[in-house]
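Quick check before the chapter quiz. The format below is the same one you will see on the exam, so make sure you can read both the input and the output lines.
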Amino acid sequence: MKFKFFEHSHQDLEKRIFISYFLFTFFLIGVLLLIEWQLASFGISQNEEININNYLTAFNIGKNSDKLIQEDSVTSFSGNQNVVEAVRNKNVKRIRQLCPDDLETLVICSREREIWYGIRWELIDRYLPQIFRQASQNRSGSFITALDRKLYLISFSPCLTETLSEMVGICIVSKRIDISSYKINSIQRTILLPYGADSDLSMYPEPAPISNSIKSAIQNLIEAGKNDVIVKINRDYAIGVSFMYDLEQNPTSLFLVIYQRFVNSFVQQSVLLFILILIAVSTIMLSLLGSWFSRAILSPVKNLSKRMKEIASHPADLGGFPLQYTGVLGEMVISFNGMNAALIEHSKTLREYKFITDNIQSGIFWLDADYNVVLCNPSFIRIVEGNDFSDVSGKNLNRLLDLKKDIKSSVIAGINTFSDLQIEPNKGRKKYVILNIRVEGTDEQLRFLGSITDITAETQAIKAKEALELELIKSNKMAEIGRNVEGIVHNLNSPLNSILGYSQLILRNNPEIKDIDKILDAGKMAAHIVKGLLDRVKKSNASMIHPVNINEVVEQELELCRHNLFYKHFVISEKELQPRIPSVMANFGDMSLAIANILNNAFDAMKDSLNKTLHVQTEQKGDYVLLTITDSGIGIPKANLKKIFEVNFSTKNIKGETRYGLGLAITKQIIEKYNGTIEVSSKVGAFSTFTISLPVLK
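Here is the expected output.
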């Protein structure tokens, strides 16, 4: 049963081959017929265009010859200075003596457009404004126009003085055109007629549909603004048209060639018969060849192809093909079996490598010469935050990693490893990676191989440790300073109280001494300052987190700034503190340190400014308290705006001082510790604004 089924399938295959070859033969012959038909049509069309163009050229030569002869005559006459003088004086008798016989229709117009010589008639009046405009620019010309279905050639020329600086009049000559004089002797029909005449074609023995088609074609050509055009009306007729225009470029007449197209039917029938014979012979030969090809080659190849499809569907089931053929097919089977054996070994190796690359944590990738991803493992897709291979395939590595600089040139130069590299794939969260890339190939065909390892967790742990160490150093330093200040303040209180007490006693016993009041005022001021400093030290030393009123912190820091001589004598302070502003949960000392750092930076920035204004504002926006500090200082360059909060970055360069760039870094760390944010905006030479946002106490 299996053998009969295979034999039946084999017969169906031969039938399909026969039909396919038969259809292919007809298709091939059809293509050849179409090509030959197009070539014949092209040859006929080229011959028609050459003949029609010859008629149009002959007509244009005759027309231009008449125009040149008449234009030369009128130009020669108008250029005669005797004529110019006679025209200037309007001497009719003298003009008649000078006028040659070929200018019997001469009309002379004065500079005032008055026709004083010759017969005034309709065409002259119609075109006099256009002729005068042309002649006033020292131009001569000719054109053909129509009147009452008659054609006229009109030529004109200005009468100029010897210096060509004055036009005394215009000479105009008209000549009726004999239509028959332009008819070219040929077996084709040539017609010269005024444009717009409805029945001009009726005198020619052409069928009425052809005449209507010719009129329609002429109208379309006029609307399209074309001239000297060949149009194929139908299978039997083609026309060539040359239009003539007046001074306003309006069509006045046309020359028409009606060309009868001749087709050699005998040649067509011969070619068709030859093609039919070719089809019959080709069909028989291709059928015989197809039958042999199916038995000897196609059937074995089909079996081999079937086995290859089975392997493609199930790559794991690689196996050999039985050696049952000889000759070239036998060698093909041997090669196929050898290829299968190699594929089995190669597939095993590939599966092992794929298992390794799919399960390592580092991303592995392959880039083309344009730095686009060609191949990668799943870890690479995970690191760049893609969903599958289609999200990264063909994408540029720099864009996938959102790198700020192109590292391709560095890799080509020999720099292969980029450690602690910050990336932001898909505009998501920032990551830190180690990137290793090496280049292979030649200049004509470069490729890049590399690996990428995500070290974000390790980097964040190191940064957290550094931040903790910095915080501990700051806390210990502030605590030590606080203890020292608190001791100093306590030691100042006793002598200060003695000064105030003795001053009051002296004032009571000696009221006439007015300077004692100044001593008392200064002492009270010193006591107030000492008390404020003592309160700040006590609050700063309290490490617990509790509700803090930002207005209170700002007032205290501004009060302490009054002892800064620059602030006291030069800076204009402006405050807009919102009353009854909600408290925030924080450490008072932390908030005091953060605000003090920003104020000190503002004072430094305003040292060299003409306008020294400090504006401090607090307000509530939604669930956040906003503190805005604006100074009129020198501003911060745009390139440094993202760096000012980094440790060890400082824009201050004061002679004799060492700046460590810790102030704003500590401030940012403090604000973020309490889930707040700090932002900065600046304009160089104008201002800098720091905005602190902290969540309100709920």
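If your answer matched, good. The first helix runs from residue 2 to 79.
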